[in-house]
Amino acid sequence: RVVVRIRPELEHEAGDAMTASVLEDGTTMRFRGSGGGDQLLPFDTVLDSVSQASLFSKSGVKALVHKACEGHTATVFTFGQTGAGKTYSLLGPLEYMCQLAADIAVHDGNLPSSCCTLMDSARLAKVCEQGLVPRAVQFLFEVLSSGVKDGGASCTAQASCMEIYNECIFDLLQTGSVSSTAPKLDVHQRPAPERGFHVPGLTQVECSTPEALLQVLRQGVAARRVAGHAMSRESSRGHFVFTIELSLVGERPGSGGRLIFADLAGSERLKSAQVVQHLAMSHHNKSLMMLSSCVAALSGCPSAGPATGGSATAPVPAPVNVVFRNSKLTKVLMESLCGKGYTLVLAAISPAERHTEETASTLAFASRCSNILRQATDELSLTSGAVGQRRPQTLPKRQPEWPSSCCAHRHIEGTTYGRSPWH
Question: In terms of pTM, does the model score above 0.90?
Answer without folding.
Answer: no
